[in-house]
Amino acid sequence: MSVFQVHFIWFLVFLLCTLMSLVLTLYSSLNMVSWLVSFDLFSLWSMDMNISFYLDWMAMTFMTTVMLISTIIMVYSYNYMYPYSKSYYFLWITILFVVSMILVITMSNMVYAMLGWDGLGLVSFFLIVYYQNNSSIVSGIFTLLMNRIGDSFFLVTLVLLFYTYDDFFSFSSSLPSFSLLIFLLLTFITKSAIFPFSPWLPLAMAAPTPISALVHSSTLVTAGLYLMMRFSYLFYSNTTIMNSLLLLSIFTSLYAGLNTVFEMDLKKLIALSTLSHLGFIGMAYSAGLLYLSFFHLLAHALFKSLLFMTMGDIMINLNHSQDIRYLSSGSLMTPFSSLLMSVSIMNLLGIPSMTGYFSKDLVLECMNYSNLSMFIMSIVYVNVLMTYYYSYKLFYYSFQSVKFNPYQLFHSPVLLHSILMSLLGLSTLFFTYVYMNMVYLSVLFYPVVYTVKFLPLLLNISLFIYLCVFLCLPTVLRKSVSSYFSSMLFLSPICMSLMPKFYYNTMFNSVISIEPRFLNQLMHNSSFTYFTPLLTQFYKSMLNPYYSLYFSLFIFILLLSVVWLL
């Protein structure tokens, strides 16, 4: 079969799964029912091994969102990745990511959930290094290492859970230990790129744009926050943990927003926007707004994936140039994509009747009536101000006077591609009414005074004053401030310098020499003949005394921490 036929078949499969998931979501939300589906795998030594899925309104709603975005990505990726080779490789890795994401969402057993958790990190690495150039491979290795840190925390969490609880949702009446909550928090914030594990998200933009839309803006980065919401009755029992999460989320959102002021790379700008919203979701969750934070998580996944896909269409016309200053010339050639891009940006701005208005601004109004201090709320206002800034920045560079790129191309999306993107745009408009009427209608009856309703206007005025002050700064001062924030507060150089150089060299050589041959052969011919060089390369790296020393030290510290906690 041709590549188009394979993509179309999987598009139909994903579309059917999306419709089935939507029906189950509506039924579980209206009736507030849940299902625990269990399958027996095998019996060994009088021990039954089974796998179980927990399906409630929260899991089904998130799974429907993931399946909807994945269905559109199936068509979008064919149109976007058609000029490149390794089409089957890209398709199967994307499908494997969706399966891993569903395992994380629906598993009731943390052991099986870790299969999906590890699958997310591994598949993300393979997709980041897709282009096989130096920048993508270094970004992929750094992302893999950061996710390995979170996986080690996950292993310690599993040990503590085995000694504390029997099952994922069968918790005893006793309160959890502080050590368990610490490792749970570290596990989840690593995957969701909360400070200090933030630098991997902008580097992950080396992946193809369809993967940035599916993985690094809407689904994978929210997996940690989603599981944190599933463990809400554990986290809300400890005030220290929630205050720590609040401070980390505020700082993440603040410095990500400040980075957007100076960033001119289009994909990194949207990645920093995603990072800012992840911090905002963490703030809402730590303030006790569980359902509203989950609502903003879903809404953000919808309109941010739409923003990435429309930007991808525009970038094709710019010969994949990511300089935001050429954005207007690409927007001129794709008016339909520019229209949908405007819809997603209006969601970022929180224009009334948009989903972003009900999710972001409603969270902000409810936080005004929480127990947060005035200092914390002032920082929250600054974060929202940064959101307005980079949204206006995208508008300004999209519709300013045309600056033509000398390497400009003309590309028009196919009809099905445009229809599906329109469907995603409509979902960003009507998702609010479905969620609010079925799940959390009572939040609309918060007693809000009229002065709070003027908050968006006040923030816009403050934004204008801020722009005037910033433009009046000397050029040298602006460049020094720009270099400071563009380095993620020097967090990226510090993290890169902490990793041994031989570790990067070993993994770099492995990716260059083994990964294309091994995975292409595996996808096309289902042959494992290239698995032997992989083991050989790993064995040679383990013979390195420095690497073996670091590896042994890591295992020793991990075991020592487990013994100390027990």
From TrEMBL:
GO process terms (BP): ATP synthesis coupled electron transport; electron transport coupled proton transport
Catalysed reactions, as listed in the record: a ubiquinone + NADH + 5 H(+)(in) = a ubiquinol + NAD(+) + 4 H(+)(out)
Record EC number: 7.1.1.2
One GO MF term attached to the UniProt entry: NADH dehydrogenase activity
InterPro entries documented for this protein: ND/Mrp_TM, NU5C-like
Signal peptide start and end residues: none
Span of domain NADH:quinone oxidoreductase/Mrp antiporter transmembrane: 109-384
Record flagged with keyword Transcription regulation: no
Residues that span the membrane, as ranges: 7-37, 57-76, 88-105, 143-165, 177-201, 213-235, 241-262, 269-291, 330-352, 372-392, 413-434, 454-477, 484-504, 547-565
Matches recorded under PANTHER family: NADH-UBIQUINONE OXIDOREDUCTASE CHAIN 5
Protein name in UniProt: NADH:ubiquinone reductase (H(+)-translocating)
